Every structure is written in structure tokens, then in C-alpha cells.
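Quick question, first post here. What does this chain look like in 3D?
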Amino acid sequence: MQRHRGRRKGHVLLSVLVLVGLVFGLVAAPVAAERERSWVLDKDGQPLTAPVAYVFDTEIDGLYKESGTFRNPSDLFLDHEENIWIADSGNNRLVKFTKDGTFLGEYGTEPGPSKLNAPEGVFITLDGNIWVADRGNSRVVVLDPNGKFIRDFPKPASKLLAADQVYQPSKLVVDRRGQLYVLNGGGDYRGMFLLDGQGIFRGFFAANRLPFNLIRLVIQWVTTEAQKRQISKILPTHHANMHLDERGFIWAVSPLGTDEQIKKLSAVGINVYKLDFSFGEEVRRGTQTIKAQFVDITVDQQEIVSALDFNSGRVYQYDQLGNLLAIFGGRGPQRGKFELPASIATDQNSRVYVLDANRNNIQRFRPTGYAQLVHEASKLYYDGYYPESADLWREVLRRNSNFEFGHVGVAKSHFKLGNYLDAMREYAVARDTDGYSLAFGEYRHDFLRQNFGWVMPLLILAIWLGWTLISRSVKRIMALNLEVEDEYV
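> Answer (accepted):
Ran it through. C-alpha cells below.
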């Protein structure tokens, strides 16, 4: 009897252990499935698995800190000392942290002219002055490094602006000449407001172009003025955010554009980045296909471009030529993913900071060794040091053979050294037809120059033989026609 009871207890204990193991496995399985991953796109836009480029590093928020929690933050900026500034819109203030999350202070909460109302943009100049897009107060306000009021710029006066024009500054940058570039909230399609150091309106800067449409042009020709007023206007897309890089270029993103969503603007407002090109990738949501909508952009000291896609929550990294280098992030509840990505910034160590307006926090990501290799190789490649970058590209390809642009980097090195056959092979793997044609042209030129002694006589002989055959064929045809004519006569 006791033996049976012992066996029964053993069976019960074993069943409990199995049940606990199954429950634990079910709970742990989703965690394992959500491990870090990354990918790149091939020439056809298809995703190819790649080594992880960035991993979650730390989280910065105001929870249990003197600053208190954020509320619907909308903008993120790293100053020249790499302190973090956040436009905490819902709390009507700016907050300042070190890059490791130590709270340093808040600004814009004291009564008076410096008091902020729903600020949506912040920019810190090299002298430490704080420029704020104070949307709720319809102005741009300038504070000193201690948060004291210096001056503000209300709605500018101009014949180009109607009296009832809504002016709600949302983002801004200040260049080295002291010129102020302001984005007007609400989707203003006319471009950035350009103001001089005195706040005088100098015009609109870098408005997006409207693509040519033949049907729309015909409708404009055949309709009357009254009919035109009834037809809804098709307007250019607006800019959502911008970034001023160390060379003075203004980078802007247009979330509703079909191409050129990322622009690198010169001093006169011309896009000098990749033209007529669609950035990002299409994302499937149920039965819908949604294109990327970039809401912010930043450029680090290695000139790597990081653009934040609102729809997918992904960060896309490009080089200065528009070549895609890495993709990471995404939407989700776990760390390393985002719910409502709003702004992005990078520090001197190429770490990426992403502001989440829904979670009220900042997530920091550090680059892996693979990403550092790609960045270094890309920088050398862009600067024209092709042979110097070749070894780095080969190491990149050793870790990720799917990376087509890595083959282009190796091909450029072979081309620079005059190894045109090797360059053609690498271009073929990368499916770069332009590079392949250029390498083939150089190979053909070298081949003819090195073998001129026997190629030229052979070529002359081939021409003579061809001419002789053609001449004889023509004579035979003419003679045949004459014989036919004589027969009928």
C-alpha cells in the first residue's frame, strides 16, 4: 500500500513539474522570438537578413527623478557638449539631461516672457543660447544658457503672409550666419520661413516641388475660372523636421512625399542629395501597403544619415550618396521598439537616441562592431579612399555576404587600382550595371592599347574581308536583276 502511495505521489510531482515547464516555455517563447534583428534591402527592395547593427543600451525618462515624467514630448536635441534637450510639450517646458540621463534642469516654466506654451522644437547654438519653437504662443523665443529671456520673434510682417495667416512654429534651426529657419505647424506647403538675425522675413526656403501631371495641366487649360475654384487644389507636400549638419547643410524630411522624402539642402535651397529616389520601404498592415513617413533626421560626425520612420518605427541609415547601410528598430511594446517615435539624434560615438512621445522616454542604442565597420568603410568610400576602404568592405562581406553595396566598395577599389576584370566581377555580384559598363570600357581600352601590334592588323584584315564579301554580294545581286530583266524583254 505504501509503495503504491509513493508511486502515486511521484506521478503527481512529475505531472506538476511537466506542467510548470510547459507554462514557462509558453511564457518564454515570445521573448526568444523578439530578439534583436536587422536587415538590408537588395536592388529590388527585398529584405535580406543582416547582422544586428544597433542594440538597446539604456532608457532615459523622468520617472522617479526630480524632473518628473514627460508628457507628449515632441523634439530632441543634443548640444555641442552632448547634453540632451527635450521639448516637453505637454508640460510646457524644456528639460535638460546629460547623455547618460542625469537631470540638469528645466526651462520655460517661470512666469513672464520666458514662459513656454506647448513648445515643439528646440535648438542650442554654440554660444549656449536656447532657441525654442514656442507653438502655443505663436513665436520663436530665445533664452540665455540660464533660461533668462533674451528676445522673441512673433509672426513676421510681410506681403507674402496674409493677415489671417496661422503662425505656429514647430521646428527650427539657426545657421552660423544667424539666419533662422522655421517650420510652420499644420503642414505649410510653402517651405521653411527664412528670417534674418533681426527677425525680418526674407522669404520661403526650399519649398517642395509639385510633380508634373499632364492631366492636371489639360484640366487647367479647358476649365473656366469658376470651375477651377470648385476643383480641389493639389499642393506640394510639407516638411516635418530638419537638421543642420556640421558643414552647414540643412537636412529635411517630407513624410507625405512619394520620392525625395529626404533632402540635403544647399544654401540656396537646392536638394543635392539622391534625386528622384524613394527612401525607406513599404510596410504591409493587413490588406494595406504603407510607405515610409519620415518624421525626423540626423547626421553624425561620420556623416551617417539616420532617418526615423513614423509608420514602421524603424531607423534607416544611409551614407552621403544615398546608399542604404542598415535598418533597425520597429514598433512594439518591448525595449528596442517604439510606440510613437517622434524625434532622433546621435552623439559623437554614433549612439542613436530616439524619443517616444507615447512612452514619454528616450531609448539609446549603441552600434555593434558590424555597424562600426560599415560606417568606417562608408566614410572612406565617400571621401574617395577606395583602396583604403577595401579591406573594411571585405570584412563587412565576410560577416554579411548579402550586402550588395559592400561589393560595390570592393569593386571601386579594384577599379582604382586598374584591376578592371576583378572590378567587373564585383559589380556583377552587386548588380551595378553602370559600374560594370564603366569597368568594361576601361578594360577594353587597356586591352586594345596593350595588344595594338596584332589587334590593329587583325582589325584591318577583318574590315577588308567584310568589305570584299559585301562588294561581291552586291555585284551578284545586280547581275541577277539584269538577267531577270533580259528574260522578260
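The two ends are 130 Å apart (CA to CA).
Residues 135 and 168 are 5 Å apart (CA to CA).
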